[in-house]
Write the structure tokens for this entry.
Amino acid sequence: FELADCYTDMERFEDAMAVLERMEIPYDKEVKAGMIHVVCLLSLERFQEAADVIPHYEEVLAAHPEEDQKKYRTKLLYMNAGACASLGLHEEERRMLHQIIDDVDPEFALAGAMLAKCFHEDGYYQKALEYAERAIEGDKESFEAHFEAGRALYELGDSNGAIAYLTEARE
């Protein structure tokens, strides 16, 4: 498991997948190895495979109450949202991001920033700003949240506010 994790850190995703497949304990029964599996699939742009296996790992996680449920559930939902975004399944992406924010981890700034980006892309700039600012409350140093707040304010006609947020994002 540690070797697969190291390969993932070095962005050697094919090597990490090969190690997972040679593990004595089937990796699809382990939460941490499953997370590495999903990261590898997403990094190798095998989005459909990732979207297909994530529900399985959610079941594995539910069967392991000793694991940090909130942390892993948040990561699984976030990775699944990313896979859905890559597949063009934007409603499913938004549903998962809302699930993170509303049910699992309201302070997970990346989910709020990603949801702000979704609203921005749909032209709902005020809603984008609300989610970006909510994400900033959860993580004052989130580049993504500051960036999305700046973009939303720009579209809403507040250039000075946009510059302030974008400057904070850059720092």
Notes: Residues 107 and 138 are 4 Å apart (CA to CA). The chain has a mean pLDDT of 85. The radius of gyration is 18 Å. The longest helix spans residues 69-86.
